[in-house]
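User: I'm writing a tutorial on reading structure tokens. Could you give me a worked example: one chain, its sequence, then its tokens, then a sentence or two explaining what the tokens reveal?
Assistant: Sure. Here is the example chain.
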Amino acid sequence: MSICPCCGQRLEPLPRLVDATRQFVTNTGSVRLAPSQYLMFRLLFRARGELVTRDGFLQLIYGDWREVDPDWNIVDIHIKDIRERIAPTNYRIENVRGRGWRLVERRDEKETLRDQGRRQARG
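And here are its predicted structure tokens:
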């Protein structure tokens, strides 16, 4: 673990999440997320490589979501936005069709460049 030069606190190794500022910090920089996006990303980050379902995200956002009428599309919208924000990092959100999502580390520089090219092509 390293020590913060300004406050002397012990820092977790990179990558890490900073709850106070809703940031994801990696070797390549930091990404700030909106409150709901940060909650969802934190769930993905803590479960790195493991599947997170739509129900899991809805529970996180709405609590007991079965008692409300959630906007099912909200999860897809947040995932899209989170993907765009973490694009400069060496992580990506992988879709497991019909089951959920998981956060994975990019395998190499080619994969990073390919994903960035796809985003630019979409506009």
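What the tokens reveal: The first helix runs from residue 35 to 46. The chain has a mean pLDDT of 80.
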